[in-house]
Write a structure and sequence with these properties.
The chain has 7 helices and no strands. The chain is mainly α. The longest helix has 25 residues, at 122-146. It is flat, with a radius of gyration of 21 Å.
Length: 151
Amino acid sequence: MDWSPLGHVALPLEQVRQASWEELIQARTVLTGLRPFYALYVMHGLFMPDTPALAALRARIDERGLGSPLTQMISIDTGPRQFADALLSCLDPIWHELHQALMDQLQADPDLFCLPGDHTRATGFVESWIRALREQTQLARSRRRTRPPGR
């Protein structure tokens, strides 16, 4: 393939040129594999119930100090440029290692959505999450009603 028309993006282009097809496929696998783990990582901050399995996944990310870099790499805007940048980032072995650690953790404890002591499994998890969201909504409404005018 002739890459010369893209010479204005020399550094990323050089990384792509130097990567083998296998490395690019692995980077794509890592990038697409990290997305659902990142979603679980950030949903914790959106009142999603915590389980030992979810906490263990977050710990694998946090113990490596990769929460913020992962946020930068897995952007909400997934246009071609952002995808290309993220794909190039995934050529770095640190992301492959993180992906493998998360996959190993998931295999070791696949009960992501099982709250301790709740035998309804995912159903109880979702019910708990919905209850937490409703409670937060009610709390916000009550704060709005008790707020003095003009604030």
